[in-house]
Amino acid sequence: MVSIDTHHACVDFPIFDAKTRSLKKAFLGAAGGAIGRNTDNVVVVEALKDVNLHLREGDRVGLVGHNGAGKSTLLRLLSGIYEPTRGSASVRGRVAPVFDLGVGMDPEISGYENIIIRGLFLGQTRRSMKRKMDEIAEFSELGEYLNMPLRTYSTGMRVRLALGVVTSIEPEILLLDEGIGAVDAAFMAKARVRLQEMVKRSGILVFASHSNDFLAQLCNTAVWINHGEVHRTGLVDEVVEAYEGPEAGAHMRRMVRQFQGEDAAVSVAPEDEEAHARALGLAIDDAASPAPGADASGSGDEA
Ligand SMILES: Nc1ncnc2c1ncn2[C@@H]1O[C@H](COP(=O)(O)OP(=O)(O)OP(=O)(O)O)[C@@H](O)[C@H]1O
Ligand SMILES: [Mg+2]
User: 21, 134, 182, 240 - which has most CB atoms within 10 Å?
Assistant: First the structure.
């Protein structure tokens, strides 16, 4: 059973070289988390504050919010790269993070070789990656480029490779940062079906993005993060509407309906979505279960 539970999780970044004398009393700008001081009077960026999330099998959650809201920090917390400064984050399941696509790939070796390296990073054996090679190559549609060094690839071509690898290894928890927005529409349609099937089998997807189109394609629920705090949770169209206004909400609903029609075979029923929203509504709760401590698992590498 896969699950993600955070209880009052906070992530502070101490900034030891901040110009403390000139730092004005913290006020919240349009971007970034709150800036304050810790008990040692060191300047800290409060990237995440009191985050309570409870995600379960089948949840496909979009993270929305302004630049510096804390979306990427939350993904890194869930992948185990960061530990909570206070509170806890407990993640059960095999985690595959897909963050900065340049990191963890070698530009000088071929696409084929990078597929193996990525697989090793994500805990696979060389042999099992070789077995999956044809399937990944076919999915990525990179053809002859797979024999060329990665530095000859465009951003979207790298994303194709990375998505081919993560979806082939069947992670239980997939953490995506917005880089995947670089793929073209045709590939996204294909990736969407594969990602949805993967999540449906036994998984959780958490996807940070500024693109409503991608959110509509991949997510059923969403979390709006504002200056490091969970501001609102619910169905993806409701959250986008609250964040961006009625027009964006209506556009979202049209897209969600369209994609549900297209993927009738793999999409969740609307009743299920409501159940998800209810579950997410509990995200603000303060479950009485014992704080499990920061046991976020994951390979901690960057895709
Ligand atoms: N390594 C770091 N050191 C110090 N501060 C950091 C670090 N990483 C992030 N922050 C700060 O944490 C806050 C949250 O950043 P984060 O990258 O999580 O935002 P985001 O929601 O992903 O934004 P964007 O939409 O621009 O990608 C910001 O105020 C940022 O300045
Ligand atoms: Mg980010």
Answer: 240
CA of 9 to the centre of ligand 2 (A): 18
Residues with CB under 6 Å of ligand 1 are 13, 32-33, 45, 47, 65, 67-73, 208
Q: What would you report as the CA-atom Rg of the chain, rounded to the nearest whole angstrom?
A: 20
From ligand 2's centre to the CA of 68, what distance in Å? 7
Q: How far apart are CA 152 and CA 119, in angstroms?
A: 21
CA 70 to centroid of ligand 1, rounded, Å: 6
Contact 188, 159 (CB under 8 A): no
pTM higher than 0.85, yes or no?
no
Q: Which atom of ligand 1 is nearest to 71's Cα?
A: 21
Give the model confidence (pLDDT) of 211-232 as tens digits. 898 899 889 999 999 999 999 9
Q: Dihedral through CA 125, CA 130, CA 132, CA 136, nearest 10? A: 110
Report which protein residue has its CA nearest ligand 1's atom 6: 13
d(CA 6, CA 230): 12
- CA-CA distance, 187 to 184, in Å (whole number)? 6
Sign of the C-alpha dihedral computed for residues 281, 284, 287 and 293 taken in this order: positive
State yes or no: pLDDT of 275 exceeds 60: no
Q: What is the mean pLDDT of residues 195-210?
A: 84
